[in-house]
């Protein structure tokens, strides 16, 4: 409950130190930057998911890096300097990974769909093939 008031306070202080127009420009600029980051990251995620449909391995970067960049885009869209600072921390890759490791998050395992190379059909999950000879 305290965060929105602190965000408002930082924007008021920015307006006092510079001018009201500068504070308004700052809010509009970070909003635009947040939308651009979110849009770019969404397009990259769609590309990676299409690659998975073609049999490529889905690594941990979708879960960690892409989602973190999406969070950074959303944080940039909120008006205020505290959320913008948090977004910058998330955007910087090495700092983000070090912070995630310090918080004790598990490293996600890469996901690769099982492939039946004879029929070129993707089968997700576990299966057992029973030949016709074994069933007789």
Automatic annotation (TrEMBL):
Keyword field contains Ribosomal protein: no
Top-rank taxon, per record: Bacteria
Keywords recorded for this protein, A-Z: Membrane, Transmembrane, Transmembrane helix
Pfam families, A to Z: FxsA
Entry annotated with the keyword NADP: no
Transmembrane segments: 20-38, 68-92
Stated name of the protein: FxsA family protein
Species whose genome carries this gene: Candidatus Seongchinamella marina
Top-level taxonomy: Bacteria, Pseudomonadati, Pseudomonadota, Gammaproteobacteria, Cellvibrionales
